[in-house]
Amino acid sequence: MTTPSPARILLADDHALVRRGVRLILDNEPDLTVVAEASDGAEAIEQARATSPDLAILDIAMPRLTGLQAARELSRLSPDLRILILTMHDNEQFFFEALKVGASGYVLKSVADRDLVEACRAAMRGEPFLYHGAVSALIRNYLDRAHDGDDPPDRPITVREEEILKLVAEGHSTKEIASMLVISAKTVERHRANLLQKLGLRDRVELTRYAIRAGLIEP
Questions:
Q1: Pick the CATH number of 7-144 from 2.60.40.10, 3.40.1190.20, 3.40.50.2300, 2.60.120.200
Q2: Which domain of life is it from (predicted)?
């Protein structure tokens, strides 16, 4: 009987030590193998294109593109790719955002040694993986929505505005952002002005604070 090939995994985290530790956990399993690593969300997309993994494990807080932004793009590029979010944040907002962008699981780094292998196998079977707190959050959210009789409001900013907000908060200049996103400097300025108006903010400092609260960058 032929042994099935191990699941090919892309691992993205901006901390090399975290990647090394997670890789040790995964490569120790006969049905899992890490075939590519990335240090930020944009590199994760590049590596996914180059290596065609079965599963992507993405940290939430990464430079250039967050794990959630990368997950949204990877879901669009490769609908069959399974995605897990790996994070230190036990945060309901991040958890629900992860589900919205196509992730099939949300794993806390604090218990990765216990949960990650199980989460990978669940994802490869096409099943969701939810840690205990996430199950409680889902039930609470469902009950709140049922009580209010409506759906939560749409996100206040567009995907492109979110990309620009993150890069502004990371300290990139208008020219740098235009180059990274392959758009004109005028377009960057227009999006930045729209962000300030939509969010009721005054300057880059307030945009940065908002980006921290939204989980786009770490403080």
A1: 3.40.50.2300
A2: Bacteria
